Amino acid sequence: MTRRRLGTWTAALLFATVSVVLGCRLADTDGVTPVPQLLAFLPWLLAPAAAGLALALLARWWSGTIWAALVLGLLAWFIAPYGQGGEPDGRVLASFRVMTSNVEFGRATDALVTAVREERPDIVFVEECDHGCSAALRRSLAVSHPYRRSVEGAGSTGSVVLSRFPLEPAAGIRDSTMGMPGAVADVRGHAVRLQLAHPMPPLPGQLDVWRRELGELRDFAATTGSPTVLAGDFNASQDHAAFRAILDTGLRDAARLAGADRTPTWPARTAPAIGAQIDHVLVSADFSARGARFLDLADTDHRALLVDIALHGPG
């Protein structure tokens, strides 16, 4: 009897924890700590839910098995890709390759330079590019990527956009904790708005900043009104309401369009197999995407994302 009671209480604790996270997901809110942190790993909540089901069956707790079925059903529902899919109808006007990489305080700068030379992306979004990183990219990639927009800073605050295409300045996201520069690229005669994303992570005590900065990215996405590429380390996955609000403006996740949604990008060093996809390339509805690949770079806890996109004309 004691074992059955222990199994029942353990299963109930597991179900309750998962249910709180699912309740916030169902209510379209990110809640309070630790819910936002757990939402990033929502697919992996299948493990405690399945363990709870096994305990409920062993304890012959039949109402618990019904609870488990509801929890597992909701998890399966929410794991499905979020946002719009499909391709635009118009003819292709220009194709190019985009890369985004968080180089973790500049430590992975050398690895990024090697990857850029090998993969030859046309536009590169670099997060956590400190002063040394920015200078190194200027020295090493000035010939292949002569155009750049940057926010210079120490540690995680610096960010750089590199381009083979001419760039015109754009406002970017102002008053952000970490640099989020913007630009307008002349892609073979077509203006494409570029915006780097790097909001604060959802740290305990910093959730308001995280929500505000994701909200500023949503406001940008809602008002850009032109072909747009919004890329970087969003510190959020599709299971965060603040990130879904960006997708709800009409932007689409290029990795999903290319069939690579939910591929983990962080933490690449400590738990690559059970991580979360928080690094994204988002594109407006006049783009298609293919060939998304995730690159393991040395000395950073993020995987780089490389994707080929194509701008289409009117349908």
Given as residue ranges, the uncertain stretches (5+ residues, pLDDT < 50) are none
The rounded distance between the terminal residues' Cα atoms is 68 Å
Number of helices: 9
Average pLDDT across residues?
95
SSE order: HHHHEHEHEEEEEHEHEHEEE
Please provide the count of β strands. Answer: 12
Taking the sheet with the most strands, its summary is:
6 strands, mixed
Biggest sheet: strands side by side, in what order?
A: 3-4-2-1-12-11
The helix content is 25-40%
Question: How would the global form be characterised?
Answer: elongated
Strand content: 15-25%
**Rg, Cα atoms, Å:** 21 Å
Task: Decide which structural class fits the backbone.
Answer: alpha+beta
Description:
Helix content is about 35%, strand content about 25%. With about 325 residues, the chain is an alpha+beta fold. The mean pLDDT is about 95.
What labels would you give this structure?
single chain; 315 residues; alpha+beta; 6-stranded mixed beta sheet; 12 strands; elongated
Summarize the structure.
This protein has 315 residues and is α+β, with helices and mostly antiparallel strands. Helices cover 35% and strands 24% of the residues. It has helices at residues 2-26, 35-39, 46-58, 62-79, 109-119, 131-141, 207-223, 241-247, 254-257; strands spanning 92-102, 123-127, 147-151, 159-163, 167-170, 182-187, 190-197, 228-233, 252-253, 279-283, 287-295, 304-312.
